[in-house]
Design goal:
The chain is mainly α. The protein contains six helices and no strands. The radius of gyration is 17 Å and the shape is elongated. It comes from Aromatoleum evansii (Azoarcus evansii).
Amino acid sequence: MLALMAADLVVLVHALFIAFVVFGGLLTLRWPRAKWAHLPVAAYGAAIELIGWTCPLTPLEKTLRLAAGGVDYRGGFIEHYLIPLIYPAGLTPRVQLVLGLLVLVVNVLVYGIVALRRRRRAGE
């Protein structure tokens, strides 16, 4: 029971991590220093998708589920939890590329806005 609860907690942390990767740059609009936490996380999140790395949270969750007597699943967190919601056909290399590029584009736009705001404040 404890292992199953821990696995569910890992899923929650994993979902929050993904949300921070994708949308964390928006925090810098209010708190510019948030970039020091967000930039490395966003780079790591993009690398996971673009290079094909495995996030360590996925094997941790799988191990906890097996320890709880549950079943393992194939693939990673995104393939198991998110892709079925967004892309029922499954994760393809093309979809992974799009997801990785989406992370980069959203964050380049947000940090561009941050840079413009900083430049405007410096010129005032």
